[in-house]
Input
Amino acid sequence: MTYIKEKGKLLKKAVETLSIASTVDKNFALEKVIEALEKNRSEILAANEKDIEIGKDNNLSAALIDRLYLDNERLDGIIQGIKTVIKLEDPIWKSNRVWTMENGLTISKMSVPLGVIGIIYESRPNVTVDAFSLALKSGNCVVLRGSSSAIHSNIALVKSIKEGLRASQIPEDVVEFIESSDRALVGDMLKANDYIDLIIPRGGNGLIDFVANN
Output
């Protein structure tokens, strides 16, 4: 649990800054992440090649290899996904209901960030960037746990994300990645109630059932 606690402490501290970040600052941070992904394109694709080679050695199916695979076109798609998020309306601190009590007190129902979101997902490395960008735009910090089959790709992607964040007003600790493939850490995430406010599984029925049951 110590590994998850250390990640959680960094995320909880970053929540304080991110929850009050302006739309301009969040969008600027996402633009800087795009620049870092473009800059590190060769490094990302080389890391992905390593995952593909290991996957083939481990006799992964053609379908799973295809899910893992990145090329320039797919990386362009990942970057386009961030651009789409930038264009989205900021959902935080918006009121969809305001009413006044008999005593004259006005009450407003506001949308606020959840805090720290843990995402456990399989295969596709594009989920790493998609999950981060959506979490950032909605004012949430995120801890990512991808599949071991995409470990090198995901590490390279998160490295670029953090590089981009360092060039912005948003702290790089708004995103943390579980770099170990130890499955016990998934169980630790599910028990880290003091640090993670919501867990989202993205994958097959086995993963979803495990998260639901634990």
Remarks:
- The first strand starts at residue 95 and ends at 100.
- The radius of gyration is 18 Å.
